[in-house]
């Protein structure tokens, strides 16, 4: 109810505005905060958010709600919360969206959560000088993608627009930590690999491995799990997958883990250190894993047009091994390579890799599991995303190495420390990808997801738009690798 100075004309205006979907609009013009605007790009619509709650779209945008500087804009999009309750407090647009330069915008992590979803009503300036409704309730993130605006998922929009958030700086430089495209090999001839089990203590043999045809029940169980992971990534997360299969004739029981034998790198990676798109092949320890470098897949990779192809696989003949992103956990934005030295991660090859690829720094250390055995790969004990990292620091026995590892990670990332038990549940074997909206998400197994504490999951969710998981119990138990091992990134 309007009191005191309210006139009949003002009351009528309030009621008219409310009937168009904007409660108490004339009062909003008089009060603070005022209508807020964000300019996305020269050719994109202007985003606006009104100080009073909009309860829906109106056929014609009330011109008196628009600031003078955007009153004649050709396209205006009104931002509103899809599912905020009637008594929710006003949130400034500057807390939700912030411009990072032409064609880039920081979006608060809340906007990727279902209950906190932001939508826009799209208006076009008509011949009469009024903005007419074109589309109602478009998801903000999909709207930005359609307009060619890069949305950067951040925990703090104000910090991002001030240049204090790693992801915002990365996007400003055109550097990506994660990709929307991966290569996967379905476990169509999966089984226990005796050769790999010699130093992979995450593996467990199964009496059912040799039963039946093509690996029998083990293969069939692995395929059911893998199909669930493939569905979660492609149909739910919107990740593009180049999918291959293998047969018993290939002699590659671990082919489901293709990330060990090749990597790809975009120009500009490592803070500009990678000068051109690069495809690299790696020396693998186990003879039957070396056969995973199949000619057909290699030809497909080469056909993608990488201007630089680097083949390190010849080091196998000298007994020097370096198994791709099994041993390399990369901060692709800042150019830091983390390597757990082991039989599968040669120190000399690691230094050669960093120099050749143009990375800025190499951080090496050694790890052991609770039984005192060396941990075979880096990617089972740590993972790095754009803004968040996961690490099992207690697996690093040397205090100086452990302190250096944590210090280096904390320079650019929020660090989630996991225990040895969580490492055994594959909490370190996770991977940041980009979903179909271009936002960072984490892919992991259901075992890993459930092993993270609720507090740890909350931290992860502040830095990514979603946690995508599927059960991978048999592949993890028998193969000794999880979701990250199953994904070879294509940049």
Automatic annotation (TrEMBL):
InterPro entries: Amdntrnsf_FN0238 (IPR014541). It comes from the Eukaryota. Gene3D superfamilies: L-arginine/glycine Amidinotransferase, Chain A (3.75.10.10). Pfam families: DDAH_eukar. This is Amidinotransferase. It comes from Coccomyxa subellipsoidea.
């Amino acid at each position: 109810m309007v009191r005191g100075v309210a006139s009949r004309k003002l009351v009528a205006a309030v009621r008219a505005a409310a009937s168009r979907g904007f409660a108490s609009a004339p009062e909003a013009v008089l009060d603070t905060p005022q209508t807020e605007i964000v300019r996305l790009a020269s050719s994109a619509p202007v985003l606006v958010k009104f100080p009073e709650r909009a309860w829906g779209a109106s056929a014609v945008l009330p011109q008196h709600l628009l600031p003078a500087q955007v009153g004649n804009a050709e396209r205006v999009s009104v931002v509103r919360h899809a599912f905020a309750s009637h008594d929710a407090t006003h949130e400034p647009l500057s807390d939700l969206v912030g411009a990072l330069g032409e064609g880039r915008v920081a979006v608060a992590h809340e906007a990727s959560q279902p209950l906190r979803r932001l939508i826009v009503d799209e208006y076009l300036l008509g011949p009469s000088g009024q903005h007419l409704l074109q589309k109602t309730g478009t998801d903000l993130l999909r709207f930005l993608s359609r307009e060619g605006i890069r949305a950067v998922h951040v925990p703090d929009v104000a910090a991002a627009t001030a240049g204090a958030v790693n992801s915002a700086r990365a996007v400003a430089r055109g550097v990506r930590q994660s990709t929307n495209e991966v290569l996967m090999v379905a476990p169509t001839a999966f089984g226990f690999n005796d050769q790999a089990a010699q130093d992979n203590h995450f593996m467990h043999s199964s009496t059912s491995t040799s039963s039946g045809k093509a690996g029998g029940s083990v293969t069939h169980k692995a395929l059911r799990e893998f199909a669930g992971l493939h569905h979660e990534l492609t149909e739910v997360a919107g990740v593009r997958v180049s999918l291959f299969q293998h047969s018993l004739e290939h002699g590659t029981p671990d082919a489901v883990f293709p990330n060990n034998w090749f990597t790809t790198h975009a120009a500009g990676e490592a803070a500009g250190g990678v000068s051109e798109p690069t495809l690299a092949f790696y020396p693998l320890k186990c003879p039957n894993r070396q056969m995973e470098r199949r000619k057909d897949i290699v030809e497909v990779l080469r056909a993608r047009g990488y201007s630089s192809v680097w083949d390190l696989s010849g080091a196998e003949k000298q007994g020097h091994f370096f198994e791709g992103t099994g041993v390399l956990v990369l901060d692709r934005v800042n150019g830091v390579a983390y390597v757990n030295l082991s039989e599968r991660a040669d120190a000399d090859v690691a230094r050669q890799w960093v120099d050749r690829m143009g990375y800025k720094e190499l951080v090496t250390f050694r790890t052991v599991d609770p039984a005192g055995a060396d941990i075979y790969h880096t990617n089972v004990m740590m993972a790095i995303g754009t803004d968040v990292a996961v690490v099992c620091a207690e697996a690093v026995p040397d205090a100086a190495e452990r302190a250096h590892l944590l210090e280096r990670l904390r320079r650019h990332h929020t660090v989630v420390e996991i225990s040895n038990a969580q490492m055994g549940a594959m909490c370190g074997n996770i991977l940041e990808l980009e979903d179909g909206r271009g936002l960072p998400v984490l892919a992991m197994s259901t075992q890993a997801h459930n092993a993270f504490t609720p507090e740890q999951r909350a931290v992860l969710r502040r830095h990514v738009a979603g946690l995508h998981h599927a059960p991978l119990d048999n592949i993890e138990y028998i193969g000794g690798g999880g979701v990250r091992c199953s994904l070879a990134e294509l940049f």
